[in-house]
Amino acid sequence: LTDQDATSVYRRTRCPEFDTRTDKNRAAQCTGVACNPCMEFTLSSPDFADGADIPLRHTCDGGDVAPRLTWKGLPAGTRSLALIMDDPDAPRGTFTHWVVCDIPADAAELGEGSTLGSQGRNSFGRSGYGGPCPPPGDDPHRYRFTLYALDLPALALQNGTREELDTKMETHVLATARLVGRYQRQKVGAR
């Protein structure tokens, strides 16, 4: 499910007066859930602003600790949340750093280093958070934290992969919210 598809599904389901397939003028002005005419579902972090650099302590070069994430504006009918953090700039294609599902709908944040919800397997092959770790010398990579509001109380996906999560939540996404951070490692020997 792409971001545009998830946003479009949400708008058709929750906001029938705005359909990105038919309202091209309004659709051209909207590039994500943040422009939702019915409700604003947002994801943020006190550790970094959207589009800014992710602090070292949240990367493989620091403590590799998950950042604190907060959200607001859950749509009506939300019964649980899921989160995926990925790097679309990875050399071999999108690399998944964090998969979490079954986050309670009454939660308003994941604290720093949180293990709330059911932690899935990332592309490192382990469960839980794996911080940004691009190849040294690469241009800055983008790290997308995407939060999904779901109409199911639980997905019951123990140690599941991103692909398994995508499949289980495919027709259950009410809305998505996204936060993007950046990180660049220095070349070995550079100062």
Major sheet details? 5 strands, antiparallel
The best one-word shape is globular
- Our Rg estimate from Cα atoms comes to 17 Å
The proportion of residues in beta strands is: 25-35%
- Our count of helices gives 3
Helix content: 10-25%
User: What is the string of SSEs from the N terminus onward?
Assistant: HHEEEEEEEHE
Which class best fits the helix and strand makeup?
alpha+beta
Straight-line N-to-C gap: 41 Å
Average pLDDT level = 83
Tell how many strands the DSSP assignment holds.
8
Strand order of the biggest β-sheet: 6-4-3-7-8
List low-pLDDT spans. Answer: 1-37
Short description:
The chain has about 190 residues and is α+β, with helices and mostly antiparallel strands.
Task: Report on the architecture of this protein.
This protein is α+β, with helices and mostly antiparallel strands and 191 residues long. The strands form two sheets. Strands 6-4-3-7-8 form a five-stranded antiparallel beta sheet, covered by helices on one side. Strands 1-2-5 form a three-stranded antiparallel beta sheet, with no helix packed on it. Strand 3 and strand 4 form a beta hairpin. The longest helix is centred in the first third of the chain and has 12 residues. It is globular, with a radius of gyration of 17 Å. The N and C termini lie far apart (41 Å). The N terminus is likely disordered.
